[in-house]
Design goal:
about 375 residues; alpha/beta; Conserved hypothetical protein from pyrococcus furiosus pfu- 392566-001, ParB domain; DUF6551; ParB/Sulfiredoxin_sf; ParB_N
């Protein structure tokens, strides 16, 4: 007996069947799908497309290719050289396929084993919720009063498509349902007036802090959040820097705005949170509190457009004068600020091309105006 199959043939529809197989066919006809039956050495076998038919010594076998090794082992023994080689090749092929399946995962993890952390939270509960029962927590949610948001809401309402209405992410808190992600879709549904309920997935939260953290993660993963969106969510989530900024702003009687576009600002709202954060770090809390207090009193009831430059200039002057032992008189500076007015301070930096030039121009204007008032 030879060590390897002397003949092997793969069944393919339309392919001519060789004589050594024809001799073993139980019928003279081949089915339209290319299948037929043969009297194999181990019984009658239906040969279908893809099957391997092979001759080993005086024996003939038919089976799917993956079973050839098994058939050979039964006929020649496990220690047969051909069987052993086939076994090695089969194992190598299985290993290659395993590596191919793992390749995308290895690429994503940089060929390092994944460090899986414990899952957070419980699986959500998909359901429908009545539109009128869904609430929005304004303490961390985006403002939808701006023109862009209103246009988007109208567009969704006018072109409502259930195929595009993914479930809203909702928090169940103290018996109420708060929308974490999907506020525009909710408002569009309300605007239409003909949608009673809407699909949601519900998570349980004890307070707004956890909701705010999820809100930030959900929105950052899809699109860039504005600095103000990020700030308000960070305050509710307990971020120390954001909380510190919010505290000094509110202590001065001001509030951090929610919309970047100045056309929608309200009196007493500030949006220069980045400048305040820097000032707290470089000038300290007492200076920032003093400056914000002066701004609040000098421009009471006014929309604070362009006042970010005034804030930064004042912080530098207050700190310099304090170090020199000649502190600023807050009441006098408030009078100076009010007399020049917001439009006047904006004119002081007209023509400045860079942030540094604006800062220098504002500091000079503030220092000169204060010195003039001080001399009177």
């Amino acid at each position: 007996m030879t060590n390897a199959p002397s003949k092997i043939w793969i069944c393919v529809t339309g392919k001519e069947v060789p004589d050594w197989i024809l001799e073993r066919m139980t019928t003279a006809d081949v089915a339209t799908d290319g299948s037929f039956e043969i009297e194999a050495s181990d019984g009658v076998v239906k040969v279908e497309a893809g099957y391997a038919v092979f001759e080993f010594g005086e024996q003939v076998f038919a089976c799917p290719p993956k079973l050839v090794q098994e058939k050979l082992a039964a006929a020649a023994g496990e220690d047969n050289e051909v069987v052993a080689n086939l076994a090695n090749r089969a194992e190598a092929e299985r290993e290659r396929r395993r590596e191919e399946k793992q390749a995308p995962l290895a690429k994503a993890s940089g060929d390092k084993p994944l460090k899986l952390k414990a899952m957070i939270g419980s699986p959500p509960a998909p359901q429908f919720a009545l539109v009128d029962q869904l609430m929005v927590d304004d303490s961390y949610q985006r403002s939808i009063e701006g023109g862009a948001s209103q246009k988007l809401i109208v567009k969704i309402a006018e072109n409502w498509d259930w195929r595009l209405c993914l479930p809203l992410i909702v928090s169940r808190r103290q018996g109420s349902l708060y929308v974490i992600d999907g506020q525009h879709r909710l408002e569009a549904a309300r605007l239409r007036g003909d949608i009673r309920d809407i699909p949601v997935v519900v998570f349980d939260f004890d307070d707004p802090r956890g909701e705010a953290e999820l809100f930030v993660q959900a929105n950052r993963s899809r699109r860039t959040m504005s600095k103000l969106d990020d700030f308000h969510a960070a305050v509710i989530a307990g971020d120390t820097k954001a909380v510190a900024v919010n505290e000094v702003v509110t202590a001065a009687g001001l509030a951090v705005g929610r919309i970047q576009a100045w056309q929608y600002w309200k009196p007493g709202e500030v949006v220069f949170v980045t400048a305040i954060t820097r000032a707290l770090h470089s000038h300290g809390k007492p200076v920032v509190e003093q400056v914000l207090g002066m701004i609040a009193r000098a421009f009471e009831g006014l929309v604070l457009t362009g006042v970010g430059a005034v804030f930064e200039g004042l912080c530098s002057i207050v700190q310099e004068r304090s170090k020199a032992g000649n502190p600023i008189d807050s009441a006098l500076m408030e009078t100076v600020l009010a007399e020049v007015g917001i439009p006047g301070w904006k004119e002081a930096v007209d023509g400045a091309e860079s942030g540094q030039e604006r800062a220098e121009a504002m500091m000079k204007a503030l220092a000169e105006a204060y010195a003039e008032a001080e001399a009177e």
